[in-house]
Amino acid sequence: MDKNNKNVIIAKDENGKEVEYEVLFEFYDEKNKKNYVGYTDNQKDDFDNILVYASIFDPTGKDKTLYPIETEEEWDVIETIFSKLPDVNKEEN
Description:
The protein is an alpha+beta fold. 19% of the residues lie in helices and 30% in strands. It contains 2 helices and 4 strands. The protein has helices spanning 72-84, 88-92; strands at residues 8-12, 18-29, 34-40, 53-56. A 4-stranded antiparallel β-sheet has the order 1-2-3-4, with helices on one face. The chain starts with 7 loop residues before the first strand and ends with a helix. The model is unreliable at 89-93 (pLDDT under 50).
């Protein structure tokens, strides 16, 4: 946890630079038998939406690699979870 009591992870971006990401959620999907994490660096896109990411991860911390989500079925599960999250912009106002 960081000084603001936010759960964070450090990961490398597409350029190999280490970036701190705020964890939005973690969950285990019984059907896929995988653990997922949703996270953001709070950057915004051209439409002022906060960019969010999701990956497969090892909750034990033994394997620190974040693995990509590769199937449509997995993305459907992730999108369902994202849709249930409160709007970050609404919380800030």
